[in-house]
Amino acid sequence: PNNVAYLRFSRQKSNPNTVRLYYGNYDSIIDELNNVKDIAKVGGYKSGDIVVIQLGTSIPAGGKWMDNSNAYPNQAAKMLGITMYNESVGSSGVRAYPTTKSFITIERNLCYTIDQKLDYFNDLWTVDDSEQTVTNGPRLKGVIGVPEITSYEDACYERYFFLSCSFEIKLIAKYFLSDQTEHDNFLLEKLGDKYDVIISYARTQKSSFDFVATPDLIVIDHGHNDEQKQLYDVDEIDAGNTFCSAMNFLIQTIYSYRPQAKIVMMSDYDNYTENLHTLENQQAVADHWHIPILRVDKLLPYNNNIKFTTNGYWDNKGYWHDSGFTFSANEEDNSYTSNCSFNSSIIGDGTLSDIKANANPRQINGVWYWDVSPRHARLYDGLHPHSSKNINVLEEYAMIEKEFLKQFLLKM
Quick one: which H or E segment has residue 107? Predict the structure, then answer.
């Protein structure tokens, strides 16, 4: 009715996050509410419409491939109210030609084409889809560490997983083509007469090959698994020789499909060992392309080059206890026992000599202590944020990624 007063919300031009309350008619109120509701949760951008994809290793993957809502990219997205496709894969790198042809790097590294992935797979196994059988292939490419596969079902999954890690599926087919039809034609050309059987199987998995959407932001969180033992030439562009050349290839490919793509990077939390140059090479790539990079190593206390003394310990389920560390040495057979579940980099070769060198367990006034770095006091396995059960490492990671991403989302 015309004689009824309604409330109306209005945003200030000088501060769009501030909402004022007025009286007004019904139509004006509905218009304002439609404008305000999308920014009310996070302030400054329409959160529900934003799509972000993140590429990376087991660190952002959170321990499970495409099935872990607790991973820090997923937590950051939830805080921001955006859609996150976490395309990270454990043990993956970007390079297509790693120094050692280990099975896992061939299977999972990103910068292989579909043809290259199938070429390697068909060298390892011969799959007869009509008869639903699998046998070992010729194995002429020198891949090491190949698992035994005897069932057709396992072979179908392995083939699917091989292909899902190719940039041509993980990026181009799923996110950079114009629609489902172009996506289908692209994969039909790449997969040939295997298209129907491979696509049918892929659609039974949580991460199908189906077209999704063009992302608003691409986060590249790679580098940890790329054997960065030296500073690389940042001008080189190649799919596989070095981390820098493969990153250049990847970024160039993204821009070739989406010239206005918004790309950002996240660094590793540390140079994992003293002889690595991961952080330096990541920064060099970011500088080369003028891409923003979140320097995680400067925001999270995971330094491994300094140590402090503690009576705390890790139990064998990944829980940290602030006190109660015990240790017993057996000098005769160079062994020891402890209630602390030391990770592999601290254990070394498992002898008393190595644990003494790496942790220096000792008694002070009758109480046992050991020396630990900030990284090993926060990360149960010394590597993954998700390995620690009662320390909020994932939340720490998620908070810094949230704040990093937010500044780019505000411009959308």
Answer: helix 103-108
Angle at 338 between CA 332 and CA 340, to 5 degrees: 145
In this predicted model, what pLDDT tens digit does every residue of 180-196 receive, in sequence order? 999 999 999 999 999 99
- What distance in Å separates the CA atoms of residue 9 and residue 16, rounded to the nearest whole number? 12
Residue pair 222/266 in contact by the 8 Å Cβ criterion: no
Which of 24-28, 44-48, 79-83, 161-165 shows the lowest mean pLDDT across its residues?
24-28
412: helix, strand or coil: coil
- Helical H runs in 264-330? 278-289
- Model pLDDT, residue 364: 98
DSSP string over 120-167:
HHHHHEEEETTTTEEEE----S--BSPPP--SHHHHHHHHHHHHHTSH
Q: Could you give phi then psi for residue 239, rounded to 5 degrees?
A: -70, -15
Q: 54 near 42, Cβ under 8 Å?
A: no
* Predicted pLDDT of residue 45: 54
DSSP label at 41? T
Q: Is the pTM of this model over 0.85?
A: yes
Nearest to 71 by CA among 81, 84, 61: 61
Q: Which residues contact 155 (CB under 8 A, 6 or more apart)?
A: 125, 127, 134, 149
Q: How many CB atoms lie within 10 A of CB 208?
A: 15
Backbone angles phi, psi at 160, to 5 degrees: -60, -45
